[in-house]
Fold this protein.
Amino acid sequence: MGPLEGRRIVLGVTGGIAAYKSIEVCRRLVDLGAHVIPILTDAALHMVGETTFVALASERPKTSLWDDPDPIPHTTLGQTCDAIVVCPATARIISDYRTGRSADLLSATLIATEAPVILCPAMHTEMWEHPAIQENLGVLAERNVIIVPPEEGRLAGGDIGKGRLAAPVTVVDQVLATLTAEQDLAGLSVVVSAGGTREAIDPVRFIGNRSTGRQGHAVAEAAQRRGASVTLVTTSTLPSHADIDRVEVVSAAEMEEAMKGAAAAADIVVMSAAVADFRPAEVATGKIKKADGVPTIALVRTNDILAGLGANKPSGQILVGFAAETSDLRQNATAKLKRKGADLIVGNDVSAPGVGFAHDTNAVTIFGADGESIDIPLSGKDLVADAVLDAARARLG
Ligand code: CTP
């Protein structure tokens, strides 16, 4: 019996070149025990064949509102499914879904369901970056639609960039996480920091770093899925689930204030933000002009937020830090763990390929103050997030 046994999943396939990958997603979901009902749009039928899905899915694929024995297939599907996965999701379906436009069987089914919806966008980089797409996805994320972001890579026509459909395994992991998540953090309060801080030099310039906030956001989303009440203190513009209490900050000082307030009553605190260690001693009130010569910017230390939280940790709280290292991971990470009074430190060697800042993947070792360590090989940031929460959960009294 697979983990998705008895689950009815509508697999919406739209007309992107990545539609061929939906065949692999279909097969993997069926292998995990799911009952998969494909809906192929007209455009999808230009890309992949109906027969393939006839052979692999649990039911004949549906291709129209009009030739189904059920007079209202969209409401029947919407009401009876446990999840809808749209893979790939083109700009068209994203736009229709955002506006509630019922243009075909798939878009009608999407607005006729209360089940979780997972969208896997795939398109050319220019389309992915277009404000219309980003705005539509932002609105959908606020409505709790789960977005599996595209990856960086080779696109149709040989271009390279962001927009390639997430790997089938990533899509299936998301389905598993959505439908099988244990509510093992129900009743707990989890506070997470995410993103890189920006320390102002003058009104237009700042000192920043390469953090995108993806790992921290993944921790917050995973905690929310697992039933925790979550506060996310973030510098990032990435979307977050509507039930997450989101506090937007810019600088290390703002983050420190928000974290101090939120962490006091938390069961688990995860400092995944990349906090600046230094800030300009003074912020120029006006823009620094070239004509005034090359400026010397004096820096001062910022407060170490994690160390402050460690020094004032309420009893029973589990405090988690991160350590981005380029050498001697174990030694540096465990030293940081002690110095900052954390219970766990998530160490990553950011010099390794695919690891750390600005990647969709991460490879980490989680070191415990109790001397234990767990290696998580290169995985999606969602899996790393769950592993971090597993380690924290296991240490709660
Ligand atoms: N951190 C923090 N406040 C800071 C700097 C870092 O809370 N001002 C937190 C980070 O969120 C992370 C952990 O401390 O959880 C590790 O940060 P890092 O910068 O790698 O550690 P440092 O103590 O700065 O060590 P080093 O400069 O030697 O790498």
Residues 38 and 81 are 12 Å apart (CA to CA). The mean pLDDT is 94. The two ends are 33 Å apart (CA to CA).
